């Protein structure tokens, strides 16, 4: 690859010829001005028009070193997906070499003076001649990187399937069905398409044979006979017939396959699974295809085919939803294109499935790279004097964001050398590339109005349409259809091409016209040939090159400059591309902290006592009440000072309950008295239920009912509202004061005596080994036997029972 920064052309100082001083002075002045204005260009390839046009504008050429010889078969204009022509490659290269040895040539002298300057404009044949990534912003080149996504056969085939994400247009309305035979899934899809097309072709054959009594078949046989005589080919027609039973079975299967296809279009086959057997087995398909070849390809007669015409016509009317039904024809011809070649090389037409698969499977390397492309051949194109043709249309892309497309007003037609017929698959009939047709002599049976050089300009074609009464169709149907197809193809590749400011590229699109003058896109070529091979191209090719410079140079300096034959047909709104930040991402923010619960507050004496035991504001407390209050104050003071008196008079379990006095209480029931004795307490069924804090319940494995309604007790009471009495739990506070239930902690409480056994506590009372607990800090106090339970306290706090 040539580097635009480091490329140098060096000559030996001992072999320099004598130079005229006056010419040298003039050359230096021109070079100094060109360098100051950044008008240094480099051209590589047979583009004398570009070189002369730039020199006339005051540009100076910096010669590039001759590229290394390409492998055999690599010629001018060869690019993946292009249609080049190398007819003038050697002649132009000889002109370059002769000019390089002329010491008195002013342009050669100026070129040597700028050999160490920077090139600001590149025009090359191949895109890989210049490294686009090493160019500066003020340098221009005539290629975009990765444009092969739509200029190759495989790329165009794949990317047009994504058109639904850019436009509502169906690609089947302007691009023939295409498959990559190297991909297994697409290979199976092609086999299904080939067989389904055989079914529709059979139906059309029956209908058309009955309507025209074989008129089309007779015309094609006549053309085939003339072609065979001119080429020395012997054609043998079969005179066998197919019996009625065999043909009836063929029609039924063809109708069934077409109906299944319509169901798939309506999504009526949504319930069909992969395990569902196919409608026809492989053996049935082999038999059907064999009979189809006999009927359509070999002209075998059919007994009583008229009775099936009505059913076939009804199905064809329903199949009008398929946009390519009219162009599919009868012979099921497909064109096979090797993706690695261009200029029509290696392209073949076939109409038998087994031949296509055998050809593709014979080259494992192409299968591995998915380079074989098979495309449905347009069997019913528009003909000019019974001769097939295609159109070469130029367009220019000057930017990819926003996508800017220029459409050239002129195009030209390329004819084949032989009359058109589907009875033969010869390249001289079906391939209109000039690189192929120039090797054939025009047929003597071809219409005399067809040009001998096999080319027409679009003005000549418009005159032909006007003579046919379709003069308005060119501007109303043909040109708009070609413009839409070009824009849609570019839209699908916009995200894949590496666009850059200052680059541009001229492309050549190949189209065919249907009998309804609807254009069909065949392929898009990079670096289209500019060789003046005929009188038509000798006029149009220089014109399109000059107009390209008007768009990319003149309009860049003056937005209102004349652009020649180019017309701006599409300019997309600018899409803001986010700046690339790399793979190192930074997340800013603050961590979420778990909220802390408020500190537990030990209830005061006033909050713990029931309202019935409080002295009224107007009454003096009695002596017993003062004594009890004084004793409680002494106990509370000792507890705050860390004394051991409180711990000496309480069991470990009650002390643990005291620390959790602010938590929601639980009603516990037990039938295991042995477990209660381990806690230093005794149980009595005559006692009312006592309450323990909620957190203590998590040391017990048995689920418990929570006052307040979190869960139900293990042994629910059958009566809906039982009266207070033994074995009945009452809360300290009303349910409204407890608030919503809280989620219990997942960890269990530590204990000094190991794991606590599962209990259902019905009543608690002090053990004989311990004293009754009194004072405001007591979390639990046992009730005397046969003492009624007081009502719930209305104020906050837990209080005493």
UniProtKB/TrEMBL annotation:
PROSITE patterns given in the database record: TTL
Highest taxon of the lineage: Eukaryota
Disordered: annotated segments: 64-106, 593-653, 767-801
InterPro entries assigned to the protein according to its UniProt record, in alphabetical order: TTL/TTLL_fam (IPR004344), TTLL_monoglycylase (IPR051437)
Cited Gene3D superfamilies: ATP-grasp fold, B domain
Compartment(s) where it occurs, according to its Swiss-Prot or TrEMBL record: Cytoplasm, Cytoskeleton, Flagellum axoneme
ATP-binding found in the keyword field: yes
Keywords: ATP-binding, Cell projection, Cilium, Cytoplasm, Cytoskeleton, Flagellum, Ligase, Nucleotide-binding
One of the record's GO molecular function terms: ATP binding
Reactions catalysed: L-glutamyl-[protein] + glycine + ATP = glycyl-L-glutamyl-[protein] + ADP + phosphate + H(+)
Gene Ontology cellular component annotations, sorted alphabetically: axoneme; microtubule cytoskeleton
Classification via Pfam families: TTL (PF03133)
Acidic residues: compositionally biased ranges: 79-89
Compositionally biased tracts (Basic and acidic residues): 90-104, 602-611
Composition skew (Pro residues), residue ranges: 782-794
Gene Ontology biological process terms, A to Z: cilium assembly; cilium movement
PANTHER family tied to this protein: TUBULIN MONOGLYCYLASE TTLL3
Annotated protein name in UniProt: Tubulin monoglycylase TTLL3-like
Originating species: Oncorhynchus tshawytscha (Chinook salmon)
Gene that this polypeptide is encoded by: ttll3
């Amino acid at each position: 690859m040539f580097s635009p920064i480091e490329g140098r052309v060096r000559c030996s100082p001992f072999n320099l010829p004598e130079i005229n001083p006056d010419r040298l002075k003039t050359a230096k002045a021109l070079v100094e001005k060109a360098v100051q204005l950044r008008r240094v260009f480099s051209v590589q390839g047979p583009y004398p028009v570009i070189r002369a046009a730039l020199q006339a504008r005051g540009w100076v050429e910096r010669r590039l070193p001759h590229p290394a010889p390409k492998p055999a078969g690599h010629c001018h204009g060869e690019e993946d997906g292009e249609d080049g022509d190398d007819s003038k490659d050697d002649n132009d290269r000889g002109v370059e070499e002769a000019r390089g040895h002329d010491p008195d040539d002013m342009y050669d002298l100026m070129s040597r003076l700028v050999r160490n300057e920077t090139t600001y404009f590149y025009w090359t044949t191949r895109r890989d001649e210049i490294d686009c990534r090493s160019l500066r912003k003020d340098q221009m080149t005539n290629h975009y990187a990765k444009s092969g996504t739509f200029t190759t056969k495989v790329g165009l085939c794949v990317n047009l399937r994504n058109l639904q994400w850019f436009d509502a247009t169906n690609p089947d309305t302007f691009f023939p069905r295409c498959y990559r035979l190297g991909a297994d899934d697409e290979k199976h899809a092609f086999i299904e398409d080939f067989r389904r097309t055989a079914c529709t072709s059979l139906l059309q054959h029956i209908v058309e044979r009955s309507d025209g009594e074989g008129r089309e078949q007779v015309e094609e046989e006549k053309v085939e006979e003339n072609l065979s005589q001119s080429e020395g080919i012997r054609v043998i027609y079969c005179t066998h017939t197919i019996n009625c039973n065999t043909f009836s079975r063929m029609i039924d299967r063809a109708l069934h396959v077409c109906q299944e296809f319509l169901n798939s279009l309506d999504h009526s086959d949504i319930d069909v699974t992969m395990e569902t057997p196919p409608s026809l087995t492989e053996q049935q398909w082999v038999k059907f295809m064999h009979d189809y070849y006999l009927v359509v390809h070999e002209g075998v007669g059919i007994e009583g085919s008229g009775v099936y015409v009505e059913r076939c016509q009804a199905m064809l009317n329903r199949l009008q939803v398929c946009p390519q039904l009219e162009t599919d024809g009868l012979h099921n011809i497909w064109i096979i294109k090797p993706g690695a070649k261009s200029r029509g090389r290696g392209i073949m037409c076939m109409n038998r499935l087994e031949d296509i698969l055998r050809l593709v499977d014979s080259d494992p390397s192409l299968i591995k790279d998915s380079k074989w492309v098979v495309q449905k051949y347009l069997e019913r194109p528009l003909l000019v004097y019974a001769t097939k043709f295609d159109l070469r249309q130029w367009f220019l892309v000057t930017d990819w964001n926003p996508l800017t497309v220029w459409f050239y007003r002129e195009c030209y037609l390329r004819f084949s050398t032989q009359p058109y017929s589907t009875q033969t698959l010869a390249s001289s009939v079906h391939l209109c590339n000039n690189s192929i047709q120039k090797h054939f002599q025009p047929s003597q049976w071809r219409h005399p109005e067809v040009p001998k050089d096999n080319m027409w300009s679009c003005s000549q074609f418009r005159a032909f349409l006007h003579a046919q009464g379709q003069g308005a169709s060119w501007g109303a149907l043909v040109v708009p259809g070609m413009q839409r197809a070009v824009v849609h193809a570019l839209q699908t590749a916009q995200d894949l091409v590496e666009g850059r400011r200052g680059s541009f590229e001229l492309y050549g699109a190949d189209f065919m016209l249907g009998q309804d003058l609807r254009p069909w896109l065949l392929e898009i070529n990079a670096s289209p040939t500019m060789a003046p091979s005929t009188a038509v191209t000798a006029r149009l090719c220089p014109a399109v090159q000059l107009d390209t410079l008007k768009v990319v140079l003149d309009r860049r300096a003056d937005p209102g400059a004349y652009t020649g034959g180019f017309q701006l047909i599409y300019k997309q709104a600018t899409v803001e591309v986010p700046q690339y930040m790399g793979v190192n991402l930074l997340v800013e923010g603050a961590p979420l902290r778990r909220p802390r619960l408020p500190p537990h507050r030990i209830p005061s004496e006033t909050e713990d006592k029931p309202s019935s035991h409080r002295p009224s504001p107007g009454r003096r407390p009695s002596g017993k009440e003062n004594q009890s209050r004084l004793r409680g104050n002494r106990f509370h003071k000792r507890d705050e000072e860390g004394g051991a008196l409180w711990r000496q008079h309480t069991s470990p379990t009650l002390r643990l309950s005291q620390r959790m006095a602010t938590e929601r209480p639980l009603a516990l029931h037990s039938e295991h008295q042995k477990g209660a004795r381990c806690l230093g307490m005794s149980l009595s069924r005559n006692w009312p239920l006592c309450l323990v804090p909620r957190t203590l319940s998590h040391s017990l494995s048995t689920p418990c009912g929570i006052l307040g309604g979190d869960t139900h007790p293990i042994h629910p009471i059958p009566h809906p509202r039982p009266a207070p009495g033994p074995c009945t739990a009452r809360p300290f506070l009303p349910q409204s004061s407890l608030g919503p239930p809280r989620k219990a902690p997942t960890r269990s409480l530590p204990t000094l005596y190991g794991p606590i056994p599962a209990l259902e506590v019905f009543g608690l009372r002090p053990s004989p080994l311990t004293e009754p607990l009194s004072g405001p800090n007591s979390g639990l106090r046992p009730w005397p036997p046969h003492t009624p339970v007081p009502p719930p306290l209305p104020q906050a706090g837990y209080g005493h029972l």
